[in-house]
Amino acid sequence: MAEILIKNLRKEFGSFTAVESSSFRIQDGEFFMLLGPSGCGKTTTLRMIAGLELPTSGSIYIDGEEVSQKRASQRDIAFVFQMFALYPHMNVRKNISYPLISQSVPRSEANEKVEEVARILGITELLDKRVGGLSGGDRQRVALGRAIVRDPKCFLMDEPLGALDAEFREYMAEELRALHNRMGATTVYVTHDQLEAMQMGDKIVVMNHGVIEQFGRPQDIYDKPATLFVAEFIGSPPMNFLRFEGALEAGAETVRMHHESLPVPVQREAFEGQMVYGVRPEHVRFSDTSRYRGEVLAVEYLGTTQIVTLHTPDGELKARVPSTQRVQPGEPVGLDFNGATVSLFDEQSGRALR
Ligand code: ATP
Questions:
Q1: Coil, helix or strand at residue 65
Q2: Residue 351 lies in a domain
Q3: pLDDT given at position 317
Q4: Share of the chain above pLDDT 70, in %
Q5: 300 inside domain
Q6: How many CB atoms lie within 10 A of CB 323?
Q7: Average pLDDT, stretch 339-351?
Q8: Nearest CA to ligand 1 atom 7
Q9: Please, which residues have CB within 8 angstroms of residue 334's CB and are 6 or more apart in sequence?
């Protein structure tokens, strides 16, 4: 197991900065997600941790030892790309033992290790079968077996499930997480899929244009997004944004929108200017007594819940409400918000106001 400390890590390719000065700590045994859209610098960050790319500046420590300038082979790390690269003509045993044999581990020791890994993954009965004839799921397990057989201090995974279809992807995500719970090795995992990050991660770093937007537990990032980017990137359907200009005093618990006042998290500091009121669809409540009114534009039935699109005096918003609450397009409804579950942002800086 390993603790990884990233300090002011930066990477430039010529005049382009792929990763701005970044700092975070990955604790021993954590399943840690690097999340962000394509091109945000997550792969470059992972490759620097692996030693496949050298930082322009900053440092990487693994278990307190600085490894920033060390080669990949000196870091005791296993790098897992998309889990496909198996040898179809070889049997499962040979595929899994390959990394050990190529490192000249004695055959008997390698065999023991393979048996142990097969037990963990539940594929003992497949050991002498040819990989070419296995189902997709079993093949993924073999690939995973080959990654974990070396027993490294830490796993680095770059979109390992990226090429799988949605259903199988979800299944393998659960397998990976279960495997992690059994083995407890520190894992750093790159994904652009916010759902995958939320489901699997103990902690998430959200990156955008080479900059860390937020770092924290999935619940904290979902409930208290630090920036407009994070609020929009995480959650489906995304958080509603109502834009307005106004002023807030320190200690305020409501903010005056275009016509009405709506509740906000208790504000530490005064603010004046363009703001964005952010509310997740599941936090919009219908209320007969509320003075804040909207008009139903569309209803999308999803089974137990429905997504209702509404026109309000401050813009359009979506509510996720129980399907038992019957509403029709054209119908007026009262809307209720809770200051503890909404977010308020300074539109110019994109930062949350708290
Ligand atoms: P993706 O999911 O598309 O791989 P990413 O978030 O992992 O995206 P990176 O691969 O880290 O992004 O790339 C970040 C930026 O750095 C991109 O704009 C990319 O084009 C650029 N980049 C990455 N590697 C190099 C390189 N060797 N030379 C020049 N530019 C690079």
A1: strand
A2: no
A3: 96
A4: 98
A5: yes
A6: 12
A7: 96
A8: 43
A9: 286, 287, 288, 289, 290, 291, 292, 293
Instruction: Give the mean pLDDT of 154-158.
Output: 89
Please check whether residue 175 is in contact with residue 141, taking contact to mean a CB–CB distance below 8 angstroms: yes
Give me the torsion for CA of 44, 41, 203, 147, rounded to 10°: -30
pLDDT tens-digit readout, 90-115: 999 999 999 898 889 999 999 999 99
Q: Within this chain, do residues 315 and 274 fall inside the same structural domain, yes or no? A: yes
Nearest-angstrom CA–CA distance, 15 and 17: 7
Mean pLDDT over each residue of the chain, to the nearest integer: 92
- Residue 44, ligand 1, Cβ within 6 A: yes
* Gap from CA of 18 to ligand 1 centroid (Å): 7
Residue 233 belongs to some domain of the structure: no
- Residue closest via CA to ligand 1's atom 2 equals 38
**What pLDDT shows up at residue 24?**
97
> In which band, very low, low, confident or very high, does the pLDDT at 72 lie, cut at 50, 70 and 90?
confident
Protein residue with its CA nearest to atom 16 in ligand 1: 18
Atom of ligand 1 lying closest to residue 53 CA: 27
Q: Which of 13, 54, 211 to mutate to test the pocket of ligand 1 (most atoms within 8 A of CB)?
A: 13
| CB 192 less than 6 A from any atom of ligand 1 | yes
Q: Decide which of 228, 256, 274 is a domain's last residue.
A: 228
Q: Mutate which of 40, 47, 191, 229 to test ligand 1's pocket (most atoms within 8 Å of Cβ)?
A: 40
Residue 105 Cα to ligand 1 middle (Å): 36
119 vs 113: CA distance, rounded Å: 10
Residue nearest to ligand 1 atom 17, measured at CA: 39
Residue 15, ligand 1, Cβ within 6 A: no
Task: Determine the distance separating the centroid of ligand 1 and the alpha carbon of 320, expressed in angstroms.
Answer: 36
Residues 298 and 153 in one domain: no
Q: How confident is the model at residue 160 (pLDDT cuts 50, 70, 90)?
A: confident
Residue bearing tokens 């006042």 = 261
Please give the tally of structural domains in the chain: 2
Do 116 and 217 have their domain in common? yes
Domain boundary among 228, 262, 278: 228
Residue 354 resides in a domain = no
